Amino acid sequence: MGKVYTTYGIGTAILLIAYFLLTKLIGLHQYPILSAANGVIIGGGIFFALKKFKAVNTDFQYQVGFQLGLFTGGLATIIFSSFMAIYIFMIDTQFAKAVLDSWNLNFNKGSLILIISLVIMGFSTTFILTLSFMQLLKESWNQKRQ
Q: Keywords in UniProt for this one (predicted)?
């Protein structure tokens, strides 16, 4: 299980970083609505990790699949959030101010709130998508007709 979630978690994080850099290249990285595609990317990584694990293992248990989904999305979230923290605090310090200005907040806006929001959104997306995919991939307990 460790090899599957590590491979797919790192791969998902690389895709998230590549998507962010692509939007940066185009000049659309300051629009938070485009981060909705992050959910699709994380969902794809979790789904393909679960499919791979189920194909390799004959005994696919719900608990193990659920852990695999959480670990895959969690690893991708941690790596992507670390990249964004480096990007926000060291590379483009005006990026966080531009994004937070679009939120129309009336208090002292720090860059850390953007990283915290990113982590919370990543983990909540991971949890919900793992629950959803496990409903699709779990073994049925219904008896087979004879």
A: Membrane, Transmembrane, Transmembrane helix
* Total domains, the chain: 1
Listing DSSP states for the chain in one string gives: -HHHHHHHHHHHHHHHHHHHHHHHHHT-TT-GGGGHHHHHHHHHHHHHHHHHHHHH-SS--HHHHHHHHHHHHHHHHHHHHHHHHHIIIII-HHHHHHHHHTTT--S---THHHHHHHHHHHHHHHHHHHHHHHHHHSPP-SPPP-
In a domain, 145, yes or no: no
Residue 144 included in any domain: no
pLDDT tens digits, one per residue of 54-102: 888 888 888 898 999 999 999 999 999 999 999 888 888 777 777 776 6
Gap between the Cα atoms of 99 and 35, Å rounded: 12
- Expressed as residue numbers, the domain containing 56 is 2-137
In a domain, 64, yes or no: yes
